[in-house]
Backbone:
């Protein structure tokens, strides 16, 4: 697959949003991104900027340390865990009917009946179709009159099964691995506590096959970070 990249035989999908000040922040985050020009071609002969941003903004990675009992910070995640076979669980139909849909463990088992047992080290992505709402904050957050968000996520049962399969990470095209209305972030506590990481706010997953793709997640190597921006690439045969 790697040999086919230069010739175009292997497709490379970028599953990350471009970082700027127009992305959808978590409710309550008033400041999330700022960029400043430090030098210009006209004045200095070269161009540089400095920037400030939240660790959990745009397409980002949650390190285990983000929620207890997780311990590892983003720089402590072994590089080999940041790449692996992509498993795509499609819940677009279910999410269209019920914005609070939580992927049951039975759906994971159904995927395995079609494609075989989920391999150790896989990165499991939940395709909800929510990327079609990006970057409209009202539609993407889908908040009700009380401010509670509504979008699909993983159930606790599905997360437990995937941990048993020894996957490396969970990903989604929504703001959170937990469904939007969650108040206890149970999946965050469970999965991060088991040493997994999360990829949140992934871009359009519509071209991803349910199996057969290979994923590479390259987060900023920020010492002590609870997470950070991540560039995610999918290699498709």
Residues:
């Amino acid at each position: 697959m790697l040999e086919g990249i230069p010739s175009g035989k292997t497709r490379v999908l970028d599953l990350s949003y471009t970082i700027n000040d127009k992305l959808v922040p978590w409710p309550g985050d008033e400041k999330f991104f700022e960029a400043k020009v430090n030098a210009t071609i006209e004045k200095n002969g070269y161009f540089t900027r400095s920037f400030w941003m939240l660790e959990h903004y745009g397409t980002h990675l949650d390190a285990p340390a983000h929620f207890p009992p997780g311990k590892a910070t983003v720089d402590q995640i072994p590089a080999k865990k940041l790449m692996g076979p992509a498993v795509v669980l499609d819940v677009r139909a279910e999410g269209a009917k019920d914005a609070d849909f939580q992927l049951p463990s039975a759906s994971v088992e159904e995927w395995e009946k079609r494609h075989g047992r989920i391999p150790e080290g896989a990165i499991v992505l939940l395709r909800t179709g929510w990327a079609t709402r990006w970057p409209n904050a009202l539609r993407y957050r889908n908040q009700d009159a009380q401010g509670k968000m509504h979008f699909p996520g993983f159930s606790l049962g599905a997360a437990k099964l995937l941990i048993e399969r020894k996957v490396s990470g969970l990903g989604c095209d929504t703001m959170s691995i937990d469904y939007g209305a969650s108040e206890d972030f149970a999946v965050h506590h469970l999965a991060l506590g088991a040493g997994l990481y999360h990829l949140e706010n992934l871009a359009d997953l519509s071209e991803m096959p349910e199996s057969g793709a290979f994923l590479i997640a390259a987060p900023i190597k920020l010492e002590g970070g609870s997470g950070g921006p991540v560039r995610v690439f999918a290699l498709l045969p």
